[in-house]
Specification:
The strands form two sheets. The chain has a seven-stranded antiparallel sheet with strand order 1-8-9-10-6-7-2. A three-stranded antiparallel sheet has the order 3-4-5, with helices on one face. The protein has 312 residues and is α+β, with helices and mostly antiparallel strands. Helices cover 31% and strands 24% of the residues. It is globular.
């Protein structure tokens, strides 16, 4: 974990427009999978809605967002001030809608970040997931984790209960309002099934990042063959998650934010980083939790990936 400034909690780059289009398509086609909330999270969702739309986005990215006066957008009864995206031309009210899910949908269509809302609980897990907009989950659908505590969410992670549970809970407790931290998580993803055809019915061209939506492409590695010789190198990606953690002052909820990128193995190799990734794969079995190698699926793809990365 590394401390960061508030200006770093949201990242925007030249993939912004294509990613926002993809996110909107996913939220339209699969709302039950990528959006979810319990009523207890209402205050937290509305708090970050106002923080992002009224303050953060127009201040941090003034060339992309601006607040306009009450003559620009009309709701059911009156003209209201709004946030205008100078990239898409979209205008949304600065006041959150009554629906928590709709508020999450608006947020998810403005930033290329997935947000998980972790609320304090009296249970031993410390915090539970009570709302999310998560277009690019790393593994099983987030909807099955809604309402569950940290221990249940990470129950399948090798060594979590014995080695990580206490430290994770302590990290959450140490995060105070105005305190922002980040970490990077790197893994390997396999495209094991073609993306659902409904996602390609939009007018823009899809890229390799379509496989970021893992509900249709992710399968548990225990169902794949060890050292599978038939793996297609062009369907294996390095998945990088930039994760940030911060606490909202009013609701006291902790926001776990993820920005995900994927890179093909050929791209990694062309950049001269093949040996670095191969050594990292070797290191999976040499860390303080050797079972992590199989958990991440290295028993399936490890040898094939290392062989490709190291061959001339």
């Amino acid at each position: 974990m590394h401390k960061i400034s508030p200006s770093e909690i949201i990242e925007i780059d030249n993939t912004y427009l294509s990613q926002i289009r993809l996110r909107k398509s996913l939220m339209h086609s699969y709302p039950d999978l990528v959006l979810g909330a319990n009523e207890i999270a209402r205050l937290a969702v509305f708090e970050i809605y106002k923080m992002l739309l009224c303050h953060y986005l127009p201040s941090r990215f003034p060339s992309m967002f601006r607040v306009t006066g009450p003559d620009s957008l009309k709701n059911d009864t009156e003209l209201v001030p709004c946030l205008e995206s100078l990239v898409t031309g979209e205008k949304v009210s600065l006041e959150p809608p009554n629906s928590i899910i709709e508020a999450l949908r608006i947020i998810g269509g403005l930033v290329d970040e997935d947000l998980l809302f972790m609320l304090p609980t009296t249970k031993s897990s410390g915090y539970s997931l009570e709302a999310f907009v998560n277009c690019f989950p790393n593994g099983p659908s987030t909807k099955h984790r809604l309402g569950k505590g940290l221990g249940d969410i990470h129950g399948s992670v090798p060594g979590y209960q014995e080695k990580l549970r206490s430290s994770v809970n302590q990290w959450f407790e140490r995060v105070r309002p105005g305190h922002f931290v980040k970490r990077v998580n790197v893994g390997v993803s396999l495209l094991l099934r073609t993306i659902d055809a409904r996602l390609t019915s939009t007018k823009w061209a899809m890229t390799d990042n379509e496989s970021l939506f893992s509900e249709f492409v992710w399968k548990p590695f225990q169902h794949a063959k060890n050292n599978d010789p038939d793996l297609d190198i062009d369907k294996i990606f390095m998945r990088c998650e930039r994760q940030t953690l911060y606490r909202l002052p009013q609701s006291n909820s902790v926001i776990f934010s993820l920005r995900t990128c994927q890179y093909g193995l050929r791209e990694i190799k062309a950049e001269g980083l093949g040996e670095d990734l191969a050594r990292a794969i070797d290191g999976l079995e040499k860390g303080n939790e050797p079972r992590m190698s199989a958990y991440k699926g290295a028993n399936v793809w490890g040898e094939a990936v290392k062989r490709f990365l190291r061959e001339p």
